[in-house]
Amino acid sequence: MIKRLARCVREYKWAAILSPLCMTGEVAMELLIPLVMADLYDLGIQAQDMKVVAGRSALLVACAVSSLVFGCLSAYFATQAGTGFAKNLRQDMYYNVQRFSFSNIDRFSTASIVTRLTSDVANLQNTFQMVIRMAIRCVMMFAIALVMAVRISPELTGIFLRAIPVLVIALACLVPMVFKIFDRVFKTYDRLNNTVQENIHAIRVVKSFVREDKEVEKFTQISSQIYKDFSKAEKIMALNDPIMRLCIYGCMLGISWVGAHLVVASGNNAQLGLTTGQLSSMFTYSSQIMYSLMNVSMVFVMITMSRAPLRRCYEILAEEPDLTDPKEAVTEVADGSIDFENVSFRYSDGAPHRALKEVDLHIPAGATVGILGGTGSGKTTLVQLIPRLYDVTEGTLKVGGVDVRDYSLEALRDQVAMVLQKNTLFSGTIKENLRWGKADATDQELIHACELACAHEFIQSFPDGYDTHIEQGGTNVSGGQRQRLCIARALLKKPKILILDDSTSAVDTRTDARIGQAFREEIPGTTKLIIAQRVSSVQDADMILVLDKGQVVASGTHEELLATSTIYREVYESQKKGGTD
Prior knowledge:
Blueprint: H1 2-6, H2 13-45, H3 50-99, H4 102-106, H5 110-152, H6 154-161, H7 164-201, H8 203-208, H9 212-238, H10 240-266, H11 276-318, E1 338-345, E2 356-363, E3 368-373, H12 379-384, E4 394-399, E5 402-403, H13 409-414, E6 416-419, E7 428-429, H14 430-434, H15 443-452, H16 456-460, E8 469-470, H17 479-491, E9 497-501, H18 509-522, E10 527-531, E11 543-548, E12 551-556, H19 558-564, H20 566-577
Parallel strand pairs: 3-10, 3-11, 6-9, 9-10
Antiparallel strand pairs: 1-2, 1-4, 4-5, 7-8, 11-12
Helix pairs in contact: 2-3, 2-5, 2-11, 3-5, 5-6, 5-7, 5-11, 7-9, 7-10, 7-11, 10-11, 15-17, 19-20
């Protein structure tokens, strides 16, 4: 897991290497200062030798300035490496998400993916920067200060060495207790983001039903749960600080007591025991050793907090797309013919029911096919198999006489234009949205596609015409206008197969009829599959399919189905009586 994420450092590896190297230089300069201070006191001040005082003072300044320079460089390189690592990690995760099939995306909620790309990556960035700076500093400080302390007085060094097992045991007890809490916290973050996303996306529904207070209450409950979990984890980790300080101050007292006796016994003679300057150096080194251990505990806390984000980001990177190109992929779609050969489908291996059952169909190229059926009958599932948004569970589905699993995904989907039930527009101008269908489309091509989709008239009524800005999600145009823009966008692809998944439900019957007539006259070679709730939208189709519980229960022309299909006749009669026909 760590090895996989480490690849995200890439071009910033030198910054990641130079940061700890510079930190080593900073630590080395800091640890020279107590030695120089001891000489300054013992050889200069005590002996009243001003040359030694001047020399050691200059050396102190040089060490301090060098430490500052190394520290600044280490911070610079650590920041560069950390932000670069986060950028690459976020890019790799986002790239992999773009490769996901619908079934891959179904395993992660939208809110969870957003959380992983934002706050989880930010947590890992902070941890990475702390590891290459703080962790290296703590290890180097501890190791070098320990060597210096042993060199001065092994007897005094033994005092604070006895405190190390106490600190290790304390960390070993505290850290596992917070692992589970942080795992739970980040899952709760997903719920929080999901709540916010749903609320903002459906704010019009929330306000129309006067549910603002309920939504605030829901948000408050989840936010309070995060607060409680974080507070509990922080309270547990807060126990580390008093234990650490108890050990530090205990060691100071021990060193003061034993060190004072050694100084008195030796008569301030280094050869006989310990000098005053050396004792002051021991105080400094012992403080550096104990505080480096305290900082190690802080690093452990950060690593503990980042364990859950590490796993969650790795899950995105490690997720392999269910749908991939075959080794020798077919790159040309011959025509728009579609063949379902005993096709069955279920959304997951553990699903109790099949969404489609033993579908056998032959749709010739250029045909217009209407699809009717009740909610949950499998209409959308049927058409989603054609551009291979999902793979069939059983049987074979062919487009242009070739199994869809033998095509390159790009080649297949480039020839299958699909207007989904949920019409999505992106922030930008109308032109920019339309050119999703064809990036280099000319203005004349845009106008022609919009004329076929009956969108040209209302676009011309806007002050800025095709340069009109569309808000995110298309909130500044009506539902019918949004549908027609999405149809025009699909037509620009000039596909061999056009799928309209209930994509004219928000337009009036007159406009619906005009769109249908334009399709028949202007794109006769394109196979058209039209899912609709209104019989009038599909009654002129070459073939109409009636689905029920995942099965094609009837097929034929409008007149044939009126004579043979009870379901179709009931739908037709009910709509005719309702005046929608």
